[in-house]
Every structure is written in C-alpha cells, then in structure tokens.
Amino acid sequence: MVRVAKFKTFRSYLPRCHRTYSCVHCRAHLAKHDELISKSFQGSHGRAYLFNSVVNVGCGPAEQRLLLTGLHSVADIFCESCKTTLGWKYEQAFETSQKYKEGKYIIEMSHMVKDNGWD
C-alpha cells in the first residue's frame, strides 16, 4: 500500500527567510514577525499580540465591545483554513488615545506558533 501525503494549500505563503507566526491548529501562515507592533495585549482568553497586517484570515461582522481600554468596534477574525477564531480586528476606536489600533489585528498567543528561523 502506498501512502500519499496530503499537503494543505493556503491562500498566502510568507517567505521562508522571514520569521513567521502560524496557526497552531493547522499551521497556516498568519503574520511576519516584521508586522508585530506589540506583545503587551490581552485577548479574550489570555495574552495576545497586535499586528499591523495578517494573511489567511477571514473577518466577521463588526460589533461594539467594551474592552480594557474602552469602547471599540471590532470584528472577530478566524483562520481561513481551519476556521478557528484567532482574535479580532479593530475597526474603530472611540477614544482619541486608542485610534492607533484602527485597522490592526489581535491574535491570541494560544492560537499561534512561531515558524521559520527562530533558533
């Protein structure tokens, strides 16, 4: 019997020469380390990172939520490959001091793994 390896196909692949973050559940690429803005965020279920841009991620409808830093309009984001909810996208911040978050992405650490060149 011949066993054929199944390879997953993702919408976007990040260059192998860059340190990347991937979905812990299916290993789809999510973000380059160069896109990391901050490691000091809190997600719904623990620590989270703030990214400038992400790949292989879908976005749900926006809703208003009262977060630790005030009222925001956010949309849950999910892995396009395995459909796991990863965090959220900041659509709008209502406080002036929080405007820098608009258009940025939160991914919870429990849903990502480091790949490529972290040795």
From TrEMBL:
PROSITE patterns: YIPPEE
A Pfam family that the UniProt record links to this protein: Yippee-Mis18
Protein's UniProt keywords contain Zinc: yes
Keyword Chloroplast attached: no
Occurrences of domain Yippee (ranges): 19-116
InterPro entries, per the entry: Yippee, Yippee/Mis18/Cereblon, Yippee_fam
GO molecular function, one term: metal ion binding
Family per record: Belongs to the yippee family.
Protein name from the UniProt record: Protein yippee-like
Naturally occurring in which organism (per UniProt): Chrysochloris asiatica (Cape golden mole)
Organism ancestry: Eukaryota, Metazoa, Chordata, Craniata, Vertebrata
Gene: YPEL4
